């Protein structure tokens, strides 16, 4: 894991956007794994800025989103379909047939989840997966207790997640109880992962994920097993890391490291 600590959320967003841009510059037809939530908003703004400036082209990109609430139609204001449209898809040129967001309104989820997994494989697998982290350490909607080998499936959301996400709905009661989500195993198959987090409210989850034991109680900790994960944090999210001085030392000395 590479840990990068930045002073501000804007810097976190720009650093993450640089990782995405580097991927697309090396492989213009890359498959991107995309996340929702408030954390990647700054990253998406930056990608849109690069695209509008003419330095980033998504014409050959394929994308797969991590998750969607079950029961929300594509047009529901809080659906992840709508989120992606508003905050990214409407502003960049990922061809519509290449965009995949799991359906929250399938009549056969078992079959749909199988199809979603097969479709990722058919497109060549995910080159770069963008992740946020939940307050309980979840990635996508892989709540504590999720198998670290899990695949795309329906997950019952934990109470903390319902409460955390209540801010987007009228009340916690309005947050859907179920979600369709890529599994931890699906995510770990991505060739590269960039996890971003900001704010002190993520500090404990971040510390558990990076420095705690690998455990299904904090599904982000499974990233310790991944060979190419970059974690980009602001000072708030990094504030509970025990080895923070070392991570900063590595960053400061990285340029001179033998290659
Ligand atoms: C939801 C999403 C996750 C996201 C998390 C954190 O649970 N399924 O993908 O990482 O929220 O969201 P936020 O960035 O708003 O804190």
The CATH architecture can be given as 3-Layer(aba) Sandwich
- In CATH, the topology is named Rossmann fold
Order of strands, main sheet, comes to: 1-10-9-6-2-3-5
Percent helix = 25-40%
Q: Which regions have little confidence, pLDDT < 50, spanning 5+ residues?
A: none
The level 1 CATH classification is: Alpha Beta
Cα-based radius of gyration, to the nearest Å:
17 Å
Question: What percent of residues are in strands?
Answer: 15-25%
Summing up helix and strand content along with how strands pair, one would put the structural category as: alpha/beta
Total number of strands:
10
Number of helices: 9
Hetero groups bound?
A: 2-amino-2-deoxy-6-O-phosphono-alpha-D-glucopyranose
The SSE string, one letter per element, is: EHEHEEHEHEEHEHEHEHH
The major beta sheet can be summarized as: 7 strands, parallel
Average pLDDT number: 97
Structure report:
This protein has 259 residues and is of the alpha/beta class. The protein has a single domain (2-187, 225-253), classed as Rossmann fold (3-Layer(aba) Sandwich). 35% of the residues lie in helices and 16% in strands. It contains 9 helices and 10 strands. It has a 7-stranded parallel β-sheet with strand order 1-10-9-6-2-3-5. Helix 7 links the parallel strand 9 (192-197) and strand 10. The radius of gyration is 17 Å and the shape is globular. The two termini are 17 Å apart. Bound molecules: 2-amino-2-deoxy-6-O-phosphono-alpha-D-glucopyranose (GLP).
Task: Describe the secondary-structure layout.
Blueprint: E1 2-6, H1 9-26, E2 31-34, H2 41-53, E3 62-65, E4 67-69, H3 80-89, E5 99-100, H4 109-122, E6 128-131, E7 153-156, H5 159-165, E8 178-181, H6 184-188, E9 192-197, H7 203-211, E10 229-234, H8 235-238, H9 244-253
Helix pairs in contact: 1-2
